[in-house]
Amino acid sequence: VGLAAGLDKNGAAIDGFAQLGFGFVEIGTVTPRPQPGNPKPRIFRLPNAEAIINRMGFNNLGVDNLVSRVEAAKYRGILGINIGKNFDTPVERAVDDYLICLDKVYAHASYVTVNVSSPNTPGLRSLQFGDSLKQLLEALSLRQQELTQRHGKRVPLAIKIAPDMTDEETV
């Protein structure tokens, strides 16, 4: 059992979470530049449905801050780093944001999660389908190959997709 991304968006508590005995720790989602996320309130409780709605919006201190915290951490277990695009980056330029983050986190990650599932980032979910997804994956795969050669290790990539996609949409 591991700790999924979202709780430690900036890598501030890697060592503390590692001490809790998780099988892996995933930090992020992190974007190239810092951003505040959505205006508060951004977490809503639905008591009748026994649910919580989260509209955080990738609030984080940016990839450079996260990398410095990863470098300072003592944890040497499985560390996933979840990457995303900035809110104000047009979806047509999203691949640039993902490549910036991948370049910076690759050497420090056991795996990298590419987050294309947030409904709070304009146009992001369109990257889950068709040519947009194909172009993103091709660019990331090519960069992964380059980074594997540069760093002497292959870091797996995972894609985080929306939980409400139909079976047909995931094929």
TrEMBL record:
One of its GO terms (molecular function) is dihydroorotate dehydrogenase (quinone) activity. Gene3D superfamilies: Aldolase class I. Residues 1-169 form the Dihydroorotate dehydrogenase catalytic domain. Its EC number is 1.3.5.2. Transmembrane segments: none annotated. Its cofactor is FMN. Its main location: membrane. The keyword Membrane applies. The keyword Flavoprotein applies. One of its GO terms (cellular component) is cytoplasm. GO terms for biological process: 'de novo' pyrimidine nucleobase biosynthetic process; 'de novo' UMP biosynthetic process. Pathway: Pyrimidine metabolism; UMP biosynthesis via de novo pathway; orotate from (S)-dihydroorotate (quinone route): step 1/1. It is found in: Membrane. It catalyses: (S)-dihydroorotate + a quinone = orotate + a quinol. Keywords: Flavoprotein, FMN, Membrane, Oxidoreductase, Pyrimidine biosynthesis. It comes from the Bacteria. Coiled coil: none annotated. InterPro entries: Aldolase_TIM, DHO_dehydrogenase, Dihydroorotate_DH_2, Dihydroorotate_DH_cat, Dihydroorotate_DH_CS. Catalyzes the conversion of dihydroorotate to orotate with quinone as electron acceptor. Belongs to the dihydroorotate dehydrogenase family. Type 2 subfamily. This is Dihydroorotate dehydrogenase (quinone). The lineage of its organism: Bacteria, Pseudomonadati, Pseudomonadota, Gammaproteobacteria, Pseudomonadales.
